[in-house]
Structure formats: C-alpha cells, structure tokens
Amino acid sequence: MKVIIRDDSKAGSLWAARRIADRIREKAARTNAPFVLGLCTGSTPIETYAELIRMVRDGEVSFKNVITFNMDEYVGLPVTHPESYHSFMHRYLFDGLDIPAENIHILNGEAPDLEAECAAYEQAIVDASGFDLFLGGVGEDGHIAFNEPFSSLESRTRVVTLTEDTRRVNSRFFGGDMNLVPRQALSVGVATVLGSREVVILVFGSKKARALKDAVEGPMSHYCTLSGLQAHNDGIIVCDESAVGELKVSSYRYFKAVEEAENL
Q1: Which of 93, 110, 141, 221 is the most buried (most CB within 10 A)?
Q2: What one-character-per-residue DSSP string does 17-59 give?
Q3: What is the pLDDT at residue 264?
Q4: What's the number of CA atoms in the CB half-sphere (13 Å) around residue 241?
C-alpha cells in the first residue's frame, strides 16, 4: 500500500485525475483492448471528475475506448431521481466525456430481481477482463462502496442494508431528511474492488482521519473494509493534510520519504 499525501483535496484530486489519464494512455499505447475503470460517487471525486473532463476537452486523454463500472446504486430510486447515482455520474462526469453510452455500466436499483442484477453485474466485470483501475472514496467509518463495517473482505456485488450512520451522512444530499435516504443499496463487494489491478482511494478531510488511521495502521479487518487494501500489490491512498491528523508521526514521515525517494 502507498499513501500519497498532498496539501489539500484539490491537489490530491488532480493527482488522481492525472493517474487515471496516464494509465488510460499507457494501455492505449500497447493494446487495442479497452481500459476498464471503476468509479465512485459522493462529493469526494467531484474535483477529480472535473479535471478529467478538462483533460478530455483539451485533447489530453480520450474515453472512447474506456469501459466504466460504478460502485453502487440505491435500491428503489428511479434513475431519473436527481440523487440517483445514474444522475450523479452523468451530471459530474459522463456528460463531459467522449465515452460511448454503451460503455457505461451502473447497477439498476429498480431491477425486478436484485440478486440476479448483482450476479449479472459481477459477471459483466469478469467478461470485461476485470478492472485496470478502481477509483474509490471512503466513509467516515472506513467503508468502501457500501461495504459497511463487518462486511466480508471476500464479498462480491450484492444487496446491502445501509447503517443509520451512513444514511445520516448521505442525508445531506436529500435535503437533510434521513427518511428520504433509501435503506438498501446494490454495491460491489470488497473483493470486487480489490480484484482490480490498481486501486486508488481518495481520503480527504479531518472527518476521514480515523478511517485513514484504521486502514493504514490498524489490522486488516472487516471492521474497516478499507483496510483490505493493505494486501493489495498496487493499492494507493491519496489523502490531504487534514486527513492524516491521527497517523503516527513515524507513519507520516515514512510515506512522505517513500514518495520523495521515488520522485528522485
């Protein structure tokens, strides 16, 4: 696991966007196979998405041969609802890219058979040859996607029940009314994310400091599903100075020193 520390969320977001663009270009230079990208929602990736849109607009990268799969979607929320993840992704990313519509995959929270929808989604990822890179965020309790604390680290795409804490945090998108936040969601599993050839997790702000500490310095445990990244060969956490407040000084210095050495 690598931890990239930047001064603020803007700098961290730009780092992540450049990483994604670099990986897309690198694969395009050596093969005609599509680049398979996992994506997240929420406020955390918005600046990264804005930079990717700028890069496409300025001709620095193309998404014409990129296939995307999103992490999750609420159960029972129409795709046209302004807070559905379908709406979010088109609003903040897809409408600004040159990506073909057929290359976009998002779970259907209104599917008549939710378990079948999850199984088909997991198979579609396999059929696409797995993720080249998965971009994610983390919850205040250390969860990735909607894999709440005590989710199995071997979990795959499935129906999940959201905790009260998660629904309370997400209520900011629903006018502050937690009763409007769906109680269930469809979510890729921890193993689905960690099966990616590269994983980049964005961790910004002091509210995420405990999650970062648990993920980096704590044991690998289903209590903090982000901690599963410890076993990944190419797992990267990109954080800002506000998020590192609970790390040991020795840990902070180690990660800064490693990055400095690699950039020599």
Answers
A1: 93
A2: HHHHHHHHHHHHHH-SSPEEEEE--SSTTHHHHHHHHHHHHTT
A3: 59
A4: 5
Looking at residue 39, its pLDDT comes to 98
Identified catalytic residue from 73, 117, 148, 240? 148
CATH classification of the domain holding 210: 3.40.50.1360
Catalytic annotation present for 72: yes
Counted domains in the chain: 1
Does 148 qualify as catalytic in the annotation?
A: yes
- Out of 72, 73, 117, 240, which one is annotated catalytic? 72
- Please tell me which residue in 51, 122, 132, 141 is annotated as part of the active site: 141
Residue 115 a catalytic site member = no
Positions of the chain with pLDDT lower than 50, given as ranges: none
Q: Which domain holds residue 189?
A: 2-262
Summarize pLDDT for 173-230 with one digit per residue, the tens: 899 999 899 999 999 999 999 999 999 999 999 999 999 999 999 999 999 999 999 9
Q: What is the pLDDT of residue 163?
A: 87
Q: Is 51 a catalytic residue?
A: no
